[in-house]
Every structure is written in structure tokens, then in C-alpha cells.
Amino acid sequence: MKLFDLANKFIIFYNPYDTKKINQGDSMAGQIKRLIDTIITQRAKGNTTIMYTTKAKLTLKGVNPDLFSDTSADDPETINRLKGIAAELGVTIA
Fold it and tell me: By residue range, what is the domain housing residue 13?
């Protein structure tokens, strides 16, 4: 087995943002995606370079924007992490 295959198996096995998680609490599905979109749009203000930079910052802080969709289950820990990141970046979340 090649090293790349082992890495792929690990990445597939260890996915902390598993979209198959069951919703917890009163949250609506897709809340994480909406928070990510809000952070990116408020920060970028139409500038595509800042949009990609913000996506990279989110990924480096542990939240990969590409893993979430409107139907993704919401994890309270990830929501709190996003709120903290938004505060660090100076983004107001309603």
C-alpha cells in the first residue's frame, strides 16, 4: 500500500466535521455554513483575494469551509469556534 493511500484512509477515517452527525439541540441545519459565508462576505467585501485569504485563515484555524453545506448538521463546538474566529477577525455576527 502506498503512503498516499494510507493518508487518504486516515483523512477519510478522521473527519471531525462529519456531515452525518445528528443535529444536537435546537440548531437548524446549515447554521455553520451561514456563519462561514457571513464571515467571508463581511471580510472580503467583494475582493476575491481577501475571500480566498479568509478561507485559508478559517482552514488554518480548524474550520474548512469546503466541508460544510446547507444540509450539514450543526456542531455546537464548531459554531462557538466560528464565533470566536469572527470576533478575532472583527466580523459582526447577528
Answer: 3-89
CA atoms within 13 A on the CB side of 29: 10
Which three cell numbers, joined as nine digits, stand for 48? 476575491
Query: What are the average pLDDT values for consecutive 10-residue runs of the chain, which has 94 residues?
Result: 48 47 54 93 93 95 90 89 93 85
Count of domains for the chain: 1
Query: What does the DSSP 8-state code read for residue 46?
Result: T
Q: Please, which residues have CB within 8 angstroms of residue 83's CB and are 6 or more apart in sequence?
A: 35, 93
pTM across the whole model:
0.67
64 assigned to some structural domain = yes
* b/e sequence 21-53, b meaning 16+ C-beta within 10 Å: eeeeeeeeebbbbbbbebbbeebbeeeeeeeee
Q: Which residue has the cell 466580523?
A: 91
> What 3-state class would DSSP assign to 50?
helix
